[in-house]
Amino acid sequence: MARRGRRGLNDDDLAVWTQVARSARPMRGPDAPRAPLAAQPEPAFPPTSRAPEPLPIQASVQVPVDFRVGQAARAKPRTATAVTRHLSPSPAERLHAQPLRMDHKTHRKMSRGKLAPEARIDLHGMTLAVAKTALTGFILRCSGSGRRLVLVITGKGKGDHGPLPTRSGALRHEVPHWLDLPPLSHVVLQVVPAHLRHGGGGAYYVYLRRAG
Q: pTM for the whole thing?
């Protein structure tokens, strides 16, 4: 019978246990006991940041006391000079801007009122429709008869009479435009504001092309 040693194990048991202990290997896997993690040092946090500096103060905008939200801003009053710049050029200014299509000496004499018109028509008091028809017939007849310089009187105008309201001096503005359109443009060579002795700003010299 085997003798029992310490802890109640006999010689045979000790031999088996010694053989098992030699063949044992450490466990590797999810069931293996894990070594305790070493204590991690606490992160060194930066010192508390300072309070942000205040933003620079913008220049304040002055708002009228009586201004309300949604109210349109008041436009600056336009001066007389600004209003004048936006006005359309006068008929005389437009005529002076046109190129010279006739003899220079004859044009200078005509502008100074030193040439007598060979015929004239007075459109003053007519409606625009009647005046245009009368002017067209008059210019074509004068051209057909060989006349060169004619006078067209429009008046400076306080508004022409008719069923529809028209601006003041409408004839004075429209006559140069009519003379620059067919069929009159084919026979008209030059249009010039009349001299004071022949009506000034209320009349025009119309110089016709030579017939033939």
A: 0.56
